[in-house]
Amino acid sequence: MARSASTTFPTWCDVAKNRRLFAYLSPLILPLVPGRAGATHFSLNLANALEDVAGDPGDAEIACRIQVFVAGEAASDETRTIRVKAGKPDQSHVDCRFAPEALGYAEITITADRPFFRKILTEHMYSIVERPDGGTFIVNAAFKFSDPVTINLMRRIGKFCLVHPAHCVAKARNIGNSALIVNPFEGPVAARLATRTGKEIRRRLAPHQAALIPLEELIDDDRISCVLYTGSNRYPGWDVRHAFGDANRINRIDHLEFFRGDPTIRHLSTKQYVRAALRNTARNLGLRN
Amino acid sequence: MICYCFGISREAVRTHFARPGARLDDFITATGITTKCTACAIDLDVMLDEVNEAAVAGRSAAREDVPRRGWRTAIERVDSGFLVCDGSMRTSVRLANYPPYFENLALCAPHHFKLMLFDNDGRACARAKGRVEPGEETTIDLSALAGCPPQGWFLLRQRPESAGHYGTMRPQAVLDGGTWVACYHTQFHTDAARDGRRSSTPLRSVAGRTRALISIINGSARATDFRATLEGGSSAQTAEGKLLGNGACFLDVDTVFPKLPPGAPLILRVQSTQPTRKNLLNRHPDGSFGVDHFPNLV
To answer: Do domains B77-190 and B192-293 have the same CATH topology?
Structure first.
């Protein structure tokens, strides 16, 4: 697995001031539905994003590389150059429209010609899918690397695990549900979807492959069910709601949730403890939310 | 050892990245790490994070090593979300408490929860409570609770009863419209904001319509004024409104802003004098809905 050729691990410009700058942002993975299901519009508000991630108000040249993979193959590879002067980009947005022949994903990598970013994650990462009938909905992108939630999970639990507690398939009501899994890496990923009843689906994803896995074989009909997702490596995944038997009539795509490695117990100072107790009491009395 | 395929030790990773300006690509090219079975990719990510932390003066290499002193306290989670139970759809809240692979229940903690339902005028209308043990799940059909309003919002408090992990306990709200289902994960009620994060959402106008509804929940017991601003192209339109304390409303974007700029990306921003929670519902022409919270940042 190789990161983008221009990816640089942290370059510390001024350690004495406790300040690190990076020459790249973690690549974003954006799922792309087939064009017959809808066109995906991605819009990155560069001006806002730079306000959030730029480490200094100086000049830089930023490259935004947009790679599209469809059916496991590289479909396009485009790089747009943005010049930043005094912290202001020469174009406010990077806009793209995708309507691939088949299921796929876009990998969006942003690098700078010098250590310029004060953090490697940007939260400006959504797209809008426009259905053929004019309906629209938002889809969130995922980080390819360095997602703090994944790191937290691996550090504390040691196992990769995604979850969705509310999958639902109801044939008689024309309600379908699938999991969309993307392998953005150079090696294969063996994904496993399991329910507490012991049913499971195993799927091997080749490098750069996206797969839509119908859930009707995994979960009971017309019963809200929890599915856990594990695998030989981490991977981003989305919950896709659509008409039964027709994955091109999509009404909603949401990211799968992580098993959260956050502990349920923490240790508070006396001051924090008293404040928490007062807050809790106020909630119990209905004085605050 | 971090990579068994190529025999790369953790020390080799630390040595490489001890040099300022060290490149990850150079390390991958030189060693082949992460390029064969890929199983080490996650471990490398964790390691890089630790190396990163260690390189900055005054910060601990391992955040887990923070001394465990002070008052031992369970971390309560308070989430909120909108609800619709008006006959056109019903809302349920879903909780699941499972460990990875359904294997080690000791990783989970039993949680008890308290649920309060509010109507759009901010009146508390219904309550429910219960427990979710490790290895269990529950569905709370809000429409089945006595006093459930046709529209409003819910406040869900979850409190762990022992040491463990939050795990899979992030709630999902399920909207069931009979011939379609859509879900959204709830967010912390403290994510309510007057402006800034989670206060703007992108919209797209197709044939002059966004088909969007905006849910606004007043996260405060005090009344709030709010202003919705729709920006697109070179124009901006505004609409204003009020919410009672703990009140809520739905804004029909196409009604509030009947003249949408054609073909331009739209951004709807909601500002308020008290912290508010915002969600977006997308009505599709076939009657189904999409739903999401406002993005963290746009």
So the answer is: yes
Give the burial class of A154: count Cβ atoms within 10 A of its Cβ; 0-12 exposed, 13-18 middle, 19 or more buried: buried
Strands B124-132 and B181-185: unpaired
- Chain B residue numbers touching A93 (CB-CB < 8 A): 265
- Look up the pTM and report it: 0.89
Give A-chain residues touching B283 at CB under 8 angstroms. Answer: 135
**Distance of CA A39 to CAs A4, A78, A101, B153, Å?**
26, 18, 11, 32
Q: Give phi and psi for B45, each to the nearest 5.
A: -60, -45
Tell me which chain A residues have a C-beta less than 8 angstroms from the C-beta of B201. 138
Cβ contact (<8 Å) for A185 and B189?
Answer: no
Q: Are residues A127 and A18 in the same domain?
A: yes
The yes/no answer on whether domain B192-293 falls in CATH 2.60.290.11 is yes
Q: In what order do the strands lie in the sheet with A162-167?
A: A200-205, A189-194, A225-231, A162-167, A257-258
Q: If contacts are CB pairs under 8 Å, which of residues 64-93 in chain A contact chain B?
A: 93
How many of the other CB atoms lie within 10 Å of CB of B27?
A: 20
- ipTM of this complex: 0.89
Domain extent at residue A174: 147-262
Judging by beta carbons within 10 Å of its beta carbon (0-12, 13-18, 19+), is residue A258 exposed, middle or buried?
A: buried
The pLDDT value given to residue B246? 96
Please state the domain count of chain A.
2
The mean pLDDT of B211-234, rounded to a whole number, is 94
